[in-house]
Amino acid sequence: MTAPQIKPATGAAYTRIHGVGGYRPVRVIPNSEVLNWIDSSDEWIRSRSGITERRWAGAEETVAEMSVQAAGKAIAQAGIAPEQIGGVIVATVSHLKQTPAIATEIADRLGCGTAPAFDISAACAGFGYGLGLADGMIRGGSAEYVLVIGVERLSDLTDTSDRSTAFIFGDGAGAAIVGPSDTPGIGKLIWGSDGSQRDVITQTQAWDTAFAKEDAVNGAGDETRWPALRMDGQPVFRWAVYEMAKVAQQALDAAGITADQLGAFIPHQANMRITDAMIKTLKLPESVPVARDIAETGNTSAASIPLAMERMLETGEAKSGDLALIIGFGAGLVYAAAVVTLP
Ligand code: UT7
């Protein structure tokens, strides 16, 4: 007797981003404020990173709140009802409550019914990882539309006395609705990891060593042991400049697109000098607009690509229907790149 065959699960042939939205916290932290914490200069921060200011979230601007605001804009732009969303993926490394996933609260508050909802930890590549998962879910037939959110409150994990990171990180949320398409709107995702470099960007301590269990139970945690993000900037910089340009080129090749056909280049906003080095290696023509959102937003990890995408569309730097090359890279180390059609 032959084994019964499982009915194949089939979904849309292709996918694309239907809408994008962002949320930027109200409080602006200019470089001048950072100089109260560390021995540095406005000139050094601008020339070494490209950052002039960043946004830091207030108490009310929680991971969930920022996500709901950003997602609301993406849903409106996509022109769909929240009930049509069949999956909510939240990429974050700074939601401090591990269980349950923040995605379920966000799905509930948005009115996404019983949509599967889960968090992923892929740092600055989180948005690309989420996009890849959403694409697979839709083409595999398990969802029609998927909400992908990149959200961070990195200020909670920033040691303001650490000269090598205090000026870099920012907070915010970016969201995208991924859904079916008649033509390919998300190229093959080139993604991966290099765990041998796991220590170059890392939380200083795990929560269990930061707070002794007895302290937690007694409510007597020692604030001096609060974990923060630590980064060994130079190796990350070198890896980003030399390895990530290759990954970006692979994403172009896999999509069958040449650099001059792009309507936008939207790299993770890690450092303006990394962006400039990638432009050179990719031989990106000057006519291709490049995301430089880091100047006003800092490095917002998983949120940086959708935030930059939203800004480029809002300012008219990039147009709906244009092709954009996106690439995220960061702690893990992890990376993800793809060519996408802008919503
Ligand atoms: O989002 C995840 C991925 N992250 C990244 O891709 C970040 C990659 N790394 C970077 O963007 C850069 O490495 C940083 C912006 C973090 C640092 O820039 P850098 O050019 O690599 O600086 P450095 O660490 O090599 O330091 C250069 C000099 C040193 O002085 P000397 O030894 O040359 O006299 C540092 O002591 O700059 C000094 N320095 C500072 N000076 C003023 C280091 N930090 C500061 C500071 N202000 N905040």
TrEMBL record:
Q: Does the keyword Lipid biosynthesis apply?
A: yes
Q: What is its EC number?
A: 2.3.1.180
Q: Which reaction does it catalyse?
A: malonyl-[ACP] + acetyl-CoA + H(+) = 3-oxobutanoyl-[ACP] + CO2 + CoA
Keywords per UniProt: Acyltransferase, Cytoplasm, Fatty acid biosynthesis, Fatty acid metabolism, Lipid biosynthesis, Lipid metabolism, Membrane, Multifunctional enzyme, Transferase, Transmembrane, Transmembrane helix
Chain positions covered by the region annotation ACP-binding:
269-273
Q: Which residues form the signal peptide?
A: none
- MF terms per GO, please? beta-ketoacyl-acyl-carrier-protein synthase III activity
What are the residue boundaries of the Beta-ketoacyl-[acyl-carrier-protein] synthase III N-terminal domain, all occurrences included?
118-195
Grouped into one coarse class, the protein's main location is cytoplasm
Stretches that traverse the bilayer: 323-342
Report the locations given in the UniProt record.
Cytoplasm
Annotated Beta-ketoacyl-[acyl-carrier-protein] synthase III C-terminal domain residues: 252-341
Q: In which pathway does it act?
A: Lipid metabolism; fatty acid biosynthesis
UniProt-annotated catalytic positions: C124, H268, N299
Q: How does it assemble?
A: Homodimer.
Family indicated by similarity: Belongs to the thiolase-like superfamily. FabH family.
What this protein is reported to do is described as: Catalyzes the condensation reaction of fatty acid synthesis by the addition to an acyl acceptor of two carbons from malonyl-ACP. Catalyzes the first condensation reaction which initiates fatty acid synthesis and may therefore play a role in governing the total rate of fatty acid production. Possesses both acetoacetyl-ACP synthase and acetyl transacylase activities. Its substrate specificity determines the biosynthesis of branched-chain and/or straight-chain of fatty acids.
Q: What is known of its domains?
A: The last Arg residue of the ACP-binding site is essential for the weak association between ACP/AcpP and FabH.
* Name listed for the protein in its UniProt record: Beta-ketoacyl-[acyl-carrier-protein] synthase III
Q: Which organism is it from?
A: Kitasatospora paranensis
Which lineage is the organism of this entry classified under, starting from the top rank?
A: Bacteria, Bacillati, Actinomycetota, Actinomycetes, Kitasatosporales
Task: Name the encoding gene, please.
Answer: fabH
